[in-house]
Automatic annotation (TrEMBL):
<dbReference type="GO" id="GO:0003676">
    <property type="term" value="F:nucleic acid binding"/>
</dbReference>
<dbReference type="Pfam" id="PF02272">
    <property type="entry name" value="DHHA1"/>
</dbReference>
<feature type="domain" description="DHHA1">
    <location>
        <begin position="240"/>
        <end position="325"/>
    </location>
</feature>
<protein>
    <submittedName>
        <fullName>DHH family phosphoesterase</fullName>
    </submittedName>
</protein>
<dbReference type="Pfam" id="PF01368">
    <property type="entry name" value="DHH"/>
</dbReference>
<dbReference type="InterPro" id="IPR001667">
    <property type="entry name" value="DDH_dom"/>
</dbReference>
<dbReference type="InterPro" id="IPR038763">
    <property type="entry name" value="DHH_sf"/>
</dbReference>
<dbReference type="InterPro" id="IPR003156">
    <property type="entry name" value="DHHA1_dom"/>
</dbReference>
<feature type="domain" description="DDH">
    <location>
        <begin position="20"/>
        <end position="162"/>
    </location>
</feature>
<dbReference type="InterPro" id="IPR051319">
    <property type="entry name" value="Oligoribo/pAp-PDE_c-di-AMP_PDE"/>
</dbReference>
Amino acid sequence: MSRPAHTLSEIAAALRSAQRIAIAAHVRPDGDAVGSVLGLALSLRAMGKTVYALLEDGVPSNLTFLPETGTVLQPPYDTLDIDCAIAVDTATHERVGAATKAALGVAPLLVNIDHHPTNPGYGHLNHVDGSQPAVGQIVYELIKEGGFPITDSVLQHLFTAISTDTGSFQFPSTTARTHEIAAEMMKEGLDTAYLAQMLYQTYPARRLALMRSMLNEMQFRADGRIVSWNLKQTLMDEVKMESGDTEGIIDTLRMIDSVISAVIFEELPDGKIRVSSRSKDSRLDVSAVCAQFGGGGHRLAAGARMKGPIEAAADTFLNALEHEVRRLA
C-alpha cells in the first residue's frame, strides 16, 4: 500500500537536516537516472554534506562525459555511515539492485522520488508524481524549493535527465514547465548545444553496427503496426557492445509511419530476456502489456524481464501486444 505523498518542501527540510547521504537509482541506468542521482548529489555536496552516489551497474559509456561521473560507486560497497538514503527514478525498491538496496538499508530514513505511476511508495518519505516527464524535473524543482546550490555541473546533469527522458522534448509527457526549466538553465549559462551534441550526435561506430543489424532483422506484425527486433548475445559480442550503446535506439523503429508499437528483446547474461516496449498511440498502454509479464513503467514506454529463449519470449509477448493493438481497430 502506498504511503501518503510528501511535498518537496518536506523532503527539502529532511535533506537539509541530513549530513551523510546516499543517492541511488535503478539498475541499467539511463540519462534520467544518472542525471537525477548526480544532479542532486552535486548540489548537496556543494552544501558541505557527505554524499555517496550509488549505481549498481555504473554509469553507461554514453554518459561518462558528464561531470563527476567518476565519483559514482559500484558494488562491492564499503559499509556506509549514512543518516539518509534517497532512491530516484526507481519504481520498486528492488530495482536499485540487491547490493545497493542493502547499502541503503543502513539509513534510518529512506526518501523515494519518482515519476512511475506504479511506484507503491516504499520510502519513509515519498514524492511520486506520474505527471512529471522526468525525475530530473522533480529534482530541479526540489533543489529550487530547498534553495540548494545550483552549479553548472548540477545543470548539466539535470538537463541530461530531462532531455533524454522526454525524447529531446518531443514526447507527449513534455510540459510547458519542462520548456521553462530549459530556458531557466540557458539563462544561467548552460551550454545546451554542447550537451545535445554529446547526447544525440556523438555515437561510437559499434552503435551504428547495431542499428544496421536492427534494420536488416526487424520484423513486422499486425499489418505493420508492430515492429520488433531480437538483440542476441552473439551480436553484442561481435560489436563489443557497451552499456548505453542501445539507449534510444528503439525510437528508430518507432518512427516508422505505420508503426504504433516498437519492441526490442535483448538476451541477458543470466538467460532472461529484457523487453523494451514503446507506443506512440495513447490508446495503447504498453505498461499494461508488460504488467502481464511482471513488468511495468509508463503508458507509452515500459519494460519487463521474461524467461528465455528469446524467440519464445518474443512470440509470447508479441501475441499479447498484438491482441491489444487489434482491439484499437
